[in-house]
Amino acid sequence: MGIDRKEATSLLDTLSVLSVATNETGDDATTPEEDWEDLPDDIVEAELQEERQFRLQVRHKGRRHDTGSEKVLERLLADSDGLSDLIATYKPTRHEKVWLLSSLRDFYDQGMITDVLASVKGGKEASVYCCRASQNIQEVVQSEFIAAKVYRPRIVRNLRNDAQYRAGRTVLTAEGKAVKNSDTRLMKALGKKTAFGKQVQHTSWLMYEFTTLQALHQAGAAVPRPIAASENALLMEYIGDENRAAPTLIETSLNQDEAQLLFLEVKRNIALLLSLGWIHGDLSAYNILYHNGKITLIDFPQVISREGNPDAEDLFYRDITRICDYFTAMGVKANADHIASELWRKFTGHTDN
């Protein structure tokens, strides 16, 4: 026996937990299918149950609930009523289906996407899917396709300590606004790392990516146009065509003349970000896309506060060094120390440490 649409929607929503996530790099990337298929059913079901209880704790002020995980999961997997059109083309694995439907439901219900077409990138904290955009969104992005970045359940995320990136950043709400220090309840939850505190931290992490993309796109940077944010996913411009998503620079071999032009464009974007008070923090050829002779910078949840983070200069130099390493291999003359020192002095007024 199936479940009605209202119950399915409610149960799917409880599975979309907001957990602390960290930045991804492409060198250790895997596909969503590989992550889910490598895990025994009992482990994944236990993790999904834990995620659901976590959300219920947040909603009901910390009280535990008996959720009947096996029955819930079996019924959801057997009959996600009203949402099957969302994955009419792409065929996720059994457990990926639950998480994918849960994370993208808001975009589907709001008429932004009509179908998930393919998985195009797997990373340490999130997976990117190519979706078919609705007609109104197609008019905005001038494309039939749109990208959905879906953050993963904790059981299949490769986590690391992200405190170095968060240092000096205010916490952001789901609306992208800074949380006030006077909100003692929230600050206490963050300090004690309660379920509610973890939800707030994850929301902030996701919103830093979204708001940074908004600011950069408005300033003329080479980044995907951000469209919308939900509890566990971002919707943004799809870079690529009907045949494949744009490859990263690390997958691309450039001739020297083209490499020189693209190196200047990457430097322009780094300088633009720095002028806005931010540093990418994990920039490399793994998170710069190449399509039709142009580059696009991606992956911004870990952006570093230029003035507030004590490691800002070191992380900035690391970004520049990684970029110079790639372009030097393509025949470009690039002195990382000189470039980093010059940009740092120009936008901060500080000399090297």
Number of helical runs?
Answer: 12
Unreliably modeled segments: 1-29, 54-69
Q: What is the domain total for the residues? A: 2
Which class do the helix and strand fractions yield?
Answer: alpha+beta
How much is the radius of gyration in Å?
Answer: 21 Å
Global shape: globular
The fraction of residues assigned to DSSP E strands is 5-15%
Helix content: 40-55%
For the biggest sheet, the summary is: 5 strands, antiparallel
How far is the first residue's CA from the last residue's CA? 67 Å
Instruction: Report the strand count.
Output: 9
> Strands of the biggest beta sheet: in what spatial order?
1-2-3-5-4
Mean pLDDT: 80
Order of helices and strands: HHHHHEEHEHHHEEHEEEEHH
